[in-house]
Amino acid sequence: MKLLRGIQHFSAFDKGVVATIGNFDGVHLGHQNLIRTLRAKANDLKLPLVLILFEPQPREYFQQEKAPARLSSLREKLDALRSCQIDYIYCLKFDSGLAHTSATDFARTYLFSTLNVKYLLIGEDFRFGKNREGDVSLLKELSSEYACDVNIYSNFCINENRISSTRIRTALQHGELSTATKYLGRPYSICGRVLHGDGRGRQWGIPTANLALHRSSLPLQGVFAVQVRIASKMVYGVANVGRRPTVDGSKNILEVHLFDFEQSIYGELLQVFFLHKLRDEVKFTSVDALIAQIYDDIAVAKEFLKNCNEITSISKLGVDLSAG
């Protein structure tokens, strides 16, 4: 899978490509099924498969901090897509220029001139271009000029529930991790590099790894039993996601206490799989009360992990932490 950016001539696309376009936030089962469908078509036509996405996501550009919390960073998204047999990711920078590009100009410039799309598969509610003026009807109208076949992808459902990033985000916000896992096809995870923290945890006898998130908002908050990938090693622990209201409260942070782990991992990239929510964040009346609760959380997490059926499958998942 190769990552492409910018408008230029790609000689590999002279014969055309099959493509889809969207945010693919979370790369859930619906996304995966769409890509499998497109992969089969690409094989039939003997053309490369191109997935087109935006960074930042359009709603993040327009709504800024009010945009919904994204499920996956660009890195996490790309790593999840590597297992989907995609030939090329075409990542477009969503900026003022793109936001003000008419739907017709966008289709002509990016889909037909730059990528030479011959088969396009999109959702029926897909909208694009300035003021979201473009839709499936416009694409079908324009496609006749470029010998492109535009098709609509049917919604992917489980038990009559349409799988969507919004539905997964809602499940995570309510602590319904099993629902999120079912729709993602894997436990939800967040990646981050370990930073030097304030050392409070070590002073309390509960050392934690503090992860840089680079996100203004998160789709879940609270205390969780987790499994953590560190390079090729898998370890278990308890994690807090949120603002630490008792000791700080100034910004979102993900901190993880790893069980039976003494290795120095500053600067390492970790992937944290969320298995079970233990509780919401609480502002305690004293630090001693907080410390006592953390020890209780550790005990409850260890008890849960003894009986967790999802742990063995996680070892086969994860991002490429060797990528740096």
User: What fraction of residues sit in β-strands?
Assistant: 25-35%
Intertermini distance: 17 Å
Structural class: alpha/beta
Instruction: Provide the CATH topology of the largest domain.
Output: Rossmann fold
Please mark out the parts with pLDDT under 50 across 5 or more consecutive residues, or reply none.
none
Biggest β-sheet: count, sense, barrel? 6 strands, parallel
CATH superfamily of the largest domain: HUPs
Number of helices in the DSSP assignment? 11
Radius of gyration from the CA trace? 22 Å
The CATH C-level class name of the largest domain: Alpha Beta
Average pLDDT figure: 90
CATH architecture annotation name of the largest domain: 3-Layer(aba) Sandwich
Pathway: Cofactor biosynthesis; FAD biosynthesis; FAD from FMN: step 1/1; Cofactor biosynthesis; FMN biosynthesis; FMN from riboflavin (ATP route): step 1/1
Family: Belongs to the ribF family.
EC number: 2.7.1.26, 2.7.7.2
Organism: Fluoribacter gormanii
Search tags:
alpha/beta, Elongation Factor Tu (Ef-tu), domain 3, 2 domains, six-stranded antiparallel β-barrel, nucleotide-binding, transferase, FMN, Riboflavin biosynthesis protein, nucleotidyltransferase
Characterization of this structure:
This protein is of the alpha/beta class and 324 residues long. It has two domains: 160 residues, Rossmann fold; 126 residues, Elongation Factor Tu (Ef-tu), domain 3. Helices cover 31% and strands 26% of the residues. It is built from eleven helices and 14 strands. The strands form three sheets. The protein has a six-stranded parallel sheet. A six-stranded antiparallel barrel has the order 9-10-13-12-11-14. A hairpin with a 2-residue loop joins strand 11 and strand 12. Helix 5 packs across helix 6 and helix 7 packs antiparallel against helix 8. The mean pLDDT is 90. InterPro entries: Cyt_trans-like (IPR004821), FAD_synthase (IPR015864), Riboflavin_kinase (IPR023468), Riboflavin_kinase_bac (IPR002606), Riboflavin_kinase_bac/euk (IPR015865), Riboflavin_kinase_dom_sf (IPR023465), Rossmann-like_a/b/a_fold (IPR014729). One of its GO terms (molecular function) is ATP binding. Catalyzes the phosphorylation of riboflavin to FMN followed by the adenylation of FMN to FAD. Pathway: Cofactor biosynthesis; FAD biosynthesis; FAD from FMN: step 1/1; Cofactor biosynthesis; FMN biosynthesis; FMN from riboflavin (ATP route): step 1/1.
